[in-house]
Amino acid sequence: MITGISLSDAKKSKVRRLPFLPRVDFSIDIFGKKIRYTQAPLSELMYNLYKDGFTKENAIKIMVAQISEIRKDEK
To answer: How many CA atoms lie within 13 A of 75 on its CB side?
Structure first.
């Protein structure tokens, strides 16, 4: 099994980021299907909602931004 790992600086985020909280993106390609797991910290979402206002629209906007930033490196 060939393994690769890399370390790089995080890119600038559109939403306020708490640098000590991990963002996770993990994918498995098996039987021609890709299974992908992405996780953004809930406390980061709550912090952004506190700063921007607790509305459904803000929550959706922040969640979409977090997930798209995490998955941006996909090729």
So the answer is: 0
Which tens digit of pLDDT belongs to each residue from 42-52?
999 999 999 98
pTM for the model: 0.70
DSSP code at position 73:
T
Q: Is the dihedral of CA 46, 9, 67, 58 positive or negative?
A: positive
Bridge partners (DSSP) of residue 25 are 38
Largest CA distance in the chain: 48
- Cα separation of 45 and 58, whole Å? 10
Residue 29 CA to its chain's centroid (Å): 20
Contact status, residue 40 vs residue 14, Cβ threshold 8 Å: no
